[in-house]
Design goal:
Radius of gyration: 21 Å
Largest sheet: 8 strands, mixed
Number of helices: 8
Oligomer: single chain
Number of strands: 8
Length: 279
């Protein structure tokens, strides 16, 4: 991509992020990696809804400024992604409300509830909290970048990336739309997950169609353990949960769920309500 096109598309995507309330004030940042290795990035402390092409910063892959204003203080997360993923040419970071709600609740977006999401995005893991603009944040993200195309950052927001700025934005938009549907489904009593055989078929379709490659088989999705899908790298991410096991009565399974007897549940609810021991 040439520099002028990159500048024009960054400004347009910034406007869309602002119009759709994925960012407010000077939140968020966008970057594009040019063919010559330079990075065009949004400037620090600037509303993404009021940027112009002349306001963008230009750096190298180490973040050293070539021209223009100072780049966003969170450029380090973009540079990490570029170093980890040769195929990535653009990064979008924002604070979309529903996706960020998952992030502040400490939850990944990983339930297999929408076929389109499995096809085009895969699951979105949660990176542990790291102070923005510091190595804490990039080190928390590092183990997850290789096999995922979008991440949530605990108590912070979301980042998505792709082959160009529009794919990065589309993935961010899919993340937010999925989070919104998941929250609404929970309000209606909970979503119904797709069965393992349906997930396997979707993974086959996405690889044959070129939506996602085999790297996505190694994502940190608990539901992949319930399928016959094999991570071709030979090992899954260190951050990936262990295969799910059926929980035993009164104990916790490896999926983090706790099984209680009826009497134990009544006792727990009674104590929480301040009613004392259940009778």
């Amino acid at each position: 991509m040439d520099e002028q096109t990159a500048r024009r598309e960054i400004v347009r995507v910034g406007q869309l992020m602002y119009e759709r309330s994925y960012v407010v004030s000077s939140d968020g940042n966008i970057s594009v990696r040019l063919d010559d290795g330079r990075i065009i990035a949004t400037p620090t402390q600037t509303s993404k809804g009021r940027m112009t092409e002349e306001m963008l910063a230009v750096t190298d892959l180490d973040g050293r400024r070539f021209e223009g204003p100072r780049a966003s203080s969170e450029l380090a997360m973009h540079l990490l992604i570029y170093r980890e993923r040769d195929d990535v040419r653009s990064v979008c970071h924002a604070h979309p409300p529903h996706g960020s709600a998952f992030a502040v609740a400490g939850l990944p977006i990983e339930e297999p509830i929408l076929s389109e999401v499995i096809l085009t995005l895969g699951c979105v893991p949660l990176a542990r909290y790291g102070t923005p603009s510091t190595d804490e944040l990039t080190e928390a993200m590092r183990p997850l970048v290789k096999n995922h195309n979008a991440l949530l950052m605990a108590n912070h927001g979301a980042v998505a990336y792709g082959a160009d700025v529009w794919q990065a934005f589309d993935r961010l938009e899919t993340l937010e739309h999925t989070a919104k549907i998941a929250i609404l489904a929970r309000a209606l009593g909970g979503a119904r997950n797709l069965p393992p055989d349906s997930i396997e078929k979707l993974i086959d379709v996405r690889e044959r169609a070129g939506y996602l490659d085999e790297r996505a088989r190694c994502q940190a999705c608990g539901y992949l353990h319930e399928t016959r899908v094999v991570c071709t790298s030979g090992e899954r991410d260190a951050s990936k949960p262990a295969p799910r096991a059926a929980p035993s009565a009164g104990g916790a399974g490896t999926n983090g769920k706790i099984s209680l007897t009826r009497e134990e549940l009544i006792e727990l609810l009674s104590q929480a309500a301040g009613l004392g021991p259940a009778r």
